[in-house]
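Section handout 9: paired folding examples.
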Amino acid sequence: MRQTPKLVTRFPFYYGWVVAAAVALSMTASSATAAPVFSVFIQPWSDEFGWSRTAISGVFSFATVMAAFVGPLVGRGLDRYGGRVILGVGALLIAGSLISVSYASNLVFLYAAFSVGRVAMMNIQNLASHTVIANWFIQRRALATAFVINGNRLGLAFWPVIAGAVVLASGWRAAFVVLGASVAVLSLAPFIFVVARRPDEIGLYPDGRPPAPHVPGEAPRVGDHSWTAREAVRTRAFWLLMAAHTGMMIAGGGSGVHRVPFFVGQGLDGSLVGPMLFVQAIGMMAGGFLAAALMRRFPEQRVIGTFMLGTTVMMFLILRVPPNGMVVAYGFTEGMFSGGTFAMLPVIYADYFGRRSIGTIRGITHPVVMVANATGPLLAGVIFDVRGDYSMAFQIFGTVTLIGATLVWFAKPPQVPLHMAGAVDSLAEAGETGAERGGVDTK
């Protein structure tokens, strides 16, 4: 156990919430390369260079696939070294990537420049941030995750609006410079405030409170056991969760990139694009907190399955939404369902398989879900170029989320192996005495 940094002792509340705030700022920064922001530039690129939707969507999909290859390495690095460097350096890479894109004049350069930021973004949002929170919280993990992921929603609310305004005023190149400079400032937060991999390394408890003693013979509580990656992949729950996650990533990536072009093609006035994306992000915030609250009262897999079912309905309903102010209401509702799903999927992985190897376990799923996230946008782009509309694309997105909702509904918590049944995933695992675990070590 390391000596507690002086910074930690200056806060009158659990320092994990400071870590969560730093991670949330990293999520805000990384959202500058997310699908809704990317979608703002599809029309300007098409107008200036004459690129097809397939070619432009390919930029996003190629960059996402590249992230899949890096994910397993990042997951193991998180378990070994923590999230400070990965979050901070990742945000700086995103900033440099965005500024580089402003110099693009051909597809090859655009593919290369954007891929750097997208790779960093996907590993921050889908691995690093959730792994950090899983390590600092157990009983309050759902609430903390909802709080952190709303950093992403904040970015999704403001980056498209900022980008769209700068595009109209000064062009798309200036918009990327503004985005990159803003992200560079936000990248400082994890370097300053993420001081350890886990709270027990600096004399703190997860959640800021000592765990209740485990009663022999009782089923282990959430967080009372930690699976190795090898043990996790042998469970039915692992594969069901990954399959459901995969379906959601196909639909989320595809609808996120092509939602704006779809509505604009239907006749939506450009002045409503910003409000639609802003309100959608607000809906995602609300959905995250609502799902977190429901998971305190109902089985986790049932809550996530219900939110995925809501996303299914919205994927089919989008084809009937008139291109007027109704798209704003649609954006909020769809955002609430998808936001609740994406916020709680990382929580259920950590709750089912514990803290100690969660980075490695999530790293195993990362290539699959990243390829899925890349497939959605490219698939929709090809369908549009061949058929001239997006109808079939959204029908496919609705189908895969329906399959995912069904799978996650039956993803019950895995049965804890006998050799873990008495283990407690707390500071006691490190062999600390009661006195050492009594509070903050200020020596």
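Moving on to protein 2 of 2.
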Amino acid sequence: MQRCRHEPLTLERIDARPVLLKLNRPIRARIGGVSDWPVILIDLHTREGIVGRSYLEPYLPNAMRYLIAMLKDLSDALKGRPVAPADLYIIARKSLHIVGYPGLSTIAVAGLDMAAWDALAKSAELPLCTFLGGSIGTVPAYNSNGLWLIAPEAAEEEACRLREEGNFSALKMRMGRAHLRDDLAAFEAVRRGVGEDIHLMVDFNQCLGIGDALLRCRAVDELGFEWIEEPLLYDNFDGYAKLCDALRTPLQLGENFYGPLDLHRALQMNACDLVMPDFMRIGGVTGWMRAAGIAGAAGVPMSTHFYPEVGAHVMRVTETAHWLEWIDWVNPVLQKPYAVRDGQVVIPDAPGLGIDWDEDFVRSVLVDL
């Protein structure tokens, strides 16, 4: 019986490059707006010649300089070590323990972790989902590329365009306008555009206090949303527990969980009905898999936040996999962006994550920090 073996890898160095990408539909939320999207491109070089790739999206351009410095420090500290993601995850986190796990520490470790998993799966000549014990296939996704706090009268047309971009059966819209009536008008416009059969999610982007959240969430509680996402500040688990008791619509939380322990605490406090970790905050693939075990044991549906390429692979091995958030903001730097067909993200039959940089385009968007 022939055994599948992959070549052991040794970490040589980590290269990290900052780029700024122009968003086709700028972010317009009550907590702020973004037109230029910061991305750190990570290349984990091994002595054996295999390069693992990942990226980070730290929201603020200034944050890139600190993360790149941290990745450089991790590169120096880990040079010569085997590319074993679970080991690197522990070593890297412990090296930053003195400054605390939440925040940039976890984000830097997540970038390293995702690149390490990509390299290891490449060395086995397997797609990451197959390397993790799953199979190549598709993952149901909702389009999250728009429907920010635009004028209600513009929401109908934008919703139609978003649906048609990949024949999506689900879309996310945002709420949190100055007046509740304008949020409701935007919802009505979206429904006019896409009809009753499209699944809709709503995200308040942490913009409400508990009183306003109770008022507004109750006002949309009977509208048929798949979930209501982050109406309160992300760490107000007590407030979320009150909302969970008060609402019929499932409450979604998790893009700001810093590691699996935060997910565990939220579930222990009954602060949410659904979870959607973000890869750079949960701790990359390793952090996700550990969090997925907790969610699976609790029977809680688990969706992704950003990073659709990584998300598609791990959703194929996640027990309570729910929805993948589709955003295409990083597509311009990829040689072959992932495809979406009939609302499903298609995992390519390629080793690792199957991503490579479009170096000509990368050169045009590199920034000095």
